[in-house]
Design goal:
The complex is a heterodimer of chains A (about 450) and B (about 450).
Chain A: E1 17-18, H1 25-33, E2 39-44, H2 47-61, E3 68-69, H3 74-79, H4 82-96, E4 100-105, H5 107-112, H6 116-125, E5 134-138, H7 147-162, E6 173-177, H8 182-194, E7 199-202, H9 227-232, E8 238-242, H10 244-258, E9 262-265, H11 271-285, H12 291-311, E10 315-319, H13 322-334, E11 338-344, H14 349-359, E12 367-370, H15 376-385, E13 390-393, H16 398-404, E14 408-410, H17 428-450
Parallel strand pairs in A: 2-3, 2-4, 4-5, 6-7, 6-8, 8-9, 10-11, 10-13, 11-12, 13-14
Chain B: E1 16-18, H1 43-51, E2 57-62, H2 65-70, E3 89-90, H3 95-100, H4 103-117, E4 121-126, H5 128-133, H6 137-148, E5 152-155, H7 164-176, E6 191-197, H8 203-213, E7 217-223, H9 228-232, E8 239-242, H10 245-259, E9 263-265, H11 271-285, H12 288-316, E10 320-325, H13 328-340, E11 344-350, H14 355-364, E12 370-373, H15 377-387, E13 391-394, H16 399-404, E14 408-411, H17 422-437
Parallel strand pairs in B: 2-3, 2-4, 4-5, 6-7, 6-8, 8-9, 10-11, 10-13, 11-12, 13-14
Antiparallel strand pairs in B: 1-12
Classes of the chains: A alpha/beta (about 450), B alpha/beta (about 450).
Bound molecules: iron/sulfur cluster (2 copies).
């Protein structure tokens, strides 16, 4: 009973966050930066933050995660971190030889107000940035936004620093990818190929954070969007952002810098969101949707209809990042399930509005909260007051799962106690089948476990 | 870029050394070089891990959310009772707080939490931002203490003020606020405090059990499975036994000068060191019966475990290990334990060792052993390849590095799931090392496969 400390009575909290359903900006920036080929993320601040961010990414992806740090000391936090960053840039290029250094700030360097572009240009002027190499940056103060915001900021920086309109437009579609797993990015590429569409996907962590075992420690695995691709993205015909919170800023930036029109969709999780993605791709390219994709969709619908009786009316609590929770909520509603409690620590009004749009009429007693004080503690309190049949979210839900004896399907970030999340996609029709498989597995295991002797059956 | 081509950063040359070479004193206790992919953490991290296992205290992290989120229940420090320490409480500072100061928010949070949970004490950790915006955390704590009547202790742990080791000191200072605040009339002469074990995988229980079997009362365990009340009475013990030297020596020294309690250093990793610790304690009390009980205990335990270890050590003869851990004392014990398993330590390093620690290491190791302070990923990978090791002992960030290179791994940090301390811990350690080093999976790793033609390349 780890969370015996959770009280049933819900009081309005003003100050405090308990058991957060979010974390801080830099880790998102670090993850996004790893989706550039040959990129070394760099944390401008004290070494503690960087160490935590690397550990957490390592625990989730089970891969080595490299990042430089400016190693602030007391001196740097009084006089500014210019000397540290210039030295860091020099050292990183000399020793680790990246194509790109992607600098993000931490709370500390933000608070003292270091001007990163000015420092970087100083490093350039003094010859610390070799020919053909790049330093990009974004600001990631953690007292604003969340890890998702940090991701969005770094994705936007990729556009700001690299995208160019050469005046020679082509038929390529930019897919700006929200925070999903490397396997999901791989799946999005596979679907695009089936749709016969030339794409530039960024960021792209497939083959970076799910690199095969080769017996070598590669600092820069073969995956990642190349600088060349990022540059050329400015010549593309259209951009599709997948996930409003993590990609809209980048899509807008691409439009205003290079005149690439865009739309922002939900991450293609679940039936409806995948439908919209496929339709949009077909619309902007004018390509026909191939039978293989229609078949994949058919298989998903088939599985839903086959298993409908087990899903109907089941109450679900979910938490995590808005870009994945929004389409997931929609999928649950499509399945006739009841996503009753929904929490995301990431601030932003759009979240509550959109969830209410999707589920407000169809889910009685819907409770949704985003931003400040939207945390796992609140979620737990709701559950204590009226329980659910299933939990969907990251590892931190395991306390609630255990205390309340409710099955948990792990999905989101971070997952530190299971594997598979970074290997098997959960986007597209196939990915949705996997979500469904997971949900059914949880619910049916539960039925089996709780069935009295006389109704325990072989066939379900 | 090939790993073997890489030169050591020139600024770091003096932080790397080899056993058996003369001159060139080890440089250590430095800040990580800017731009190095360092494996190190911050002051806050140090305080947090040390204080974390005080199970019936409230731990409130004053700062933006990340610092709290990353330290939410990451250390498997087990509790035999309260679980309050495993909750993650944060003031989650936002932009407005950073501009206007967070004292008010801190005050409100503390009051809310203390009312709700009735903790025995509260620790308030200041993180970097708080240090920069200049909140007067100590005065907020003093006010809440007055109003609520429990110790409310400010932990000065702004990350940038040093490295993890400075955080240990901040934690000790926080603990010193508790020590000596309750009467101690009923504590017998044969009594000790266990300092610097954090009850990862239940290790404090193993150690405590030995002393209790010897007839020694353990007044407090600081901080594995600790209770506030016990810490308040810790000054009643006759002796402090310090395990994690990096973290707890300061507390022991202060208790010596404030309360006249002497301390000894100890390690419970490996048979040799565990036995030595128990004998040293018996010697301290200078009581023949106690010494006799210690001897019996050691004999009985050793007889139990040696045959089990033998099986493993025979299979491990001649295998090579790299050790990279937080504290140097742990490194000493590991080298001895590995020796017992017939293994050679060919690379050894620590994050927080000092000059004399490194001298000891140099003397202990075979000629040619690489000795390193505050290593980075690249160096570690390079050493693994250069020395062609079979085993890497380290923490969370080192694990995937070892695995990528096809090398066995043993966690000797806080992600440990089985106890490695004490006599039974040595059996667990041997089994774990054996399992990973001799695992058949390594033959599927291209770099280490023996029959090349069988596999793809
Ligand atoms: S902000 Fe400071 S205290 Fe927090 S993790 Fe970073 S270095 Fe440590
Ligand atoms: S200081 Fe800021 S950036 Fe660093 S870990 Fe804490 S919240 Fe994150």
């Amino acid at each position: 009973m780890l969370l015996r400390h959770t009280s049933e009575k819900i009081q309005e909290r003003k100050a405090l966050t308990i058991n957060p359903a979010k974390t801080c900006q830099p880790i998102g920036a670090m993850y996004a930066a790893l989706g550039i080929h040959g990129c070394m993320p760099h944390s401008h601040g004290s070494q503690g933050c960087c160490s935590y961010h690397r550990s957490t990414l390592t625990r989730h992806y089970k891969e080595p995660v490299m990042s430089g740090t400016s190693s602030f000391t007391e001196g740097a936090s009084v006089f500014g971190g210019q000397a540290n960053l210039v030295q860091a840039i020099d050292n990183l290029f000399t020793i680790y030889d990246p194509q790109v250094i992607a600098v993000h700030t931490t709370c500390l360097s933000e608070t003292i107000g270091d001007d990163i572009p000015q420092i970087v240009s100083k490093a350039k002027d003094s010859g610390k940035v070799p020919e053909g190499k790049h330093v990009i940056h974004c600001n990631t103060p953690s007292y604003v936004g969340s890890h998702v915001t940090g991701y969005a900021n770094m994705v936007k920086a990729m556009v700001t620093y690299f995208a160019q309109n050469s005046g020679d437009k082509n038929e390529t579609i930019n897919l700006i990818c929200g925070w999903v797993e490397p396997s999901d990015m791989r799946e999005i590429k596979r679907l695009s190929q089936m749709l016969n569409t030339q794409i530039i996907l960024f960021p792209d962590t497939s083959n970076v954070l799910d690199a095969p075992q080769t017996g070598k420690l590669q600092f820069y695995p073969k995956g990642g969007t190349t600088v060349d691709q990022l540059t050329k993205a400015g010549d593309s015909k259209y951009s599709i952002g997948l996930g409003k919170f993590s990609t809209e800023d980048a899509a807008k930036e691409m439009d205003s810098r290079c005149g690439v029109p865009f739309s922002v969709l939900d991450v293609p999780i679940g039936l409806s969101a995948t439908d919209r993605f496929i339709m949009e791709m077909a619309k902007v390219t004018g390509n026909k949707i191939p039978d293989e994709i229609t078949d994949e969709r058919g298989r998903l619908v088939d599985m839903i209809t086959d298993m409908q009786q087990y899903l109907y009316g089941k109450r679900v609590a979910l938490w995590g990042d808005p870009d994945t929770i929004i389409p997931l909520t929609e999928f649950l509603v499509d399945l006739e399930m009841k996503p009753v409690y929904i929490v995301s620590g990431t601030p932003g009004k759009y979240f509550e509005k959109r969830i209410t749009e999707i589920a407000g009429d169809r889910v009685e007693g819907l409770k949704v909260k985003g931003g400040s004080c939207a945390d796992m503690f609140l979620m737990h309190q709701w559950i204590k007051n009226e329980p659910v049949d299933l939990l969907i979210g990251n590892t931190y839900g395991k306390y609630i799962a255990r205390d309340e004896d409710i099955p948990l399907l792990r999905m989101g970030f971070p997952i530190m106690d299971r594997v598979g999340h970074s290997c098997f996609p959960r986007v597209g029709y196939n990915g949705s089948m996997r979500i469904l498989e997971g949900i059914l597995g949880c619910l049916m295991d539960r039925l089996d476990r709780d069935a009295p002797e006389e109704s325990f059956e072989l066939v379900m | 870029m090939k790993m073997t081509d890489i030169d050591i950063l020139s600024d770091r040359k003096r932080q790397i050394n080899k056993a058996g070479t003369e001159g060139l004193a080890m440089e250590c206790e430095k800040h990580s070089l800017a731009g190095a992919v360092s494996q190190r953490a911050c002051v806050f991290c140090g305080s947090r891990v040390v204080l974390y296992p005080v199970t019936d205290a409230l731990h409130l992290i004053h700062g933006p959310i990340g610092c709290a989120a990353y330290t939410w229940d990451i250390r498997g420090a087990l509790s035999s009772g309260p679980q309050l320490h495993r909750m993650s409480f944060s003031t989650d500072l936002r932009e407005m707080d950073v501009i206007h100061g967070g004292e008010n928010k801190l005050y409100k949070s503390l009051i809310e939490l203390i009312d709700k949970y009735n903790p025995k004490a509260a620790f308030v950790y200041s993180t970097c931002v708080v240090g920069v915006i200049g909140d007067d955390v100590a005065s907020v704590c003093a006010r809440v203490k007055r109003e609520k009547g429990i110790p409310v202790i400010a932990v000065h742990s702004e990350g940038f003020k040093g490295s993890k080791k400075d955080g240990y000191k901040a934690a000790c200072d926080a603990l010193l606020n508790l020590v000596g605040t309750l009467p101690v009339d009923t504590i017998p002469r044969l009594s000790v405090n266990i300092l610097g074990d954090f009850n990862i995988a239940g290790e404090s229980w193993i150690i405590k059990n030995y002393y209790e079997k010897m007839g020694i009362r353990v007044v407090s365990t600081i901080t594995g499975d600790a209770r506030v009340k016990d810490i308040m009475q810790a000054h009643g013990a006759s002796l402090n036994i310090v395990q994690c030297s990096g973290s707890m020596t300061w507390l022991a020294q202060q208790m010596e000068s404030n309360y006249g309690i002497p301390y000894i250093r100890a390690s419970y990793f490996g048979i040799e060191d565990t036995a030595k610790a128990l004998y040293d304690v018996a010697d301290f009390f200078d009581d023949p019966e106690l010494t006799d009980r210690a001897r019996k205990l050691v004999r009985c335990e050793v007889e139990k475990v040696i045959p089990q270890i033998k099986r493993y050590s025979e299979a491990l003869r001649g295998k090579k290990a790299a050790v990279y851990v937080g504290g140097a004392f742990k490194a000493f014990s590991l080298i001895k334990s590995l020796r017992m398993l017939n293994m050679d330590t060919v690379v050894v390093g620590s994050q927080t060792g000092n000059k004399s620690d490194y001298e000891v290491l140099k003397a202990m190791c075979n000629k040619g052993t690489i000795i390193v302070d505050d290593a980075n990923t690249l160096e570690l990978a390079r050493f693994i390849l250069e020395k062609d090791v079979d085993l890497f002992i380290g923490g969370v960030k080192e694990r995937p590095i070892a695995y990528k290179l096809g090398v066995g791994f043993c966690d000797h940090n806080h992600e440990r799931k089985i106890a490695l301390a004490g006599f039974e811990g040595m059996v667990n350690f041997s089994r774990e090392v054996f399992n990973t080093v001799t695992s058949p999976v390594w033959k599927f790793v291209p770099r280490r496969q023996t029959k090349k033609e069988v596999y793809f390349d």
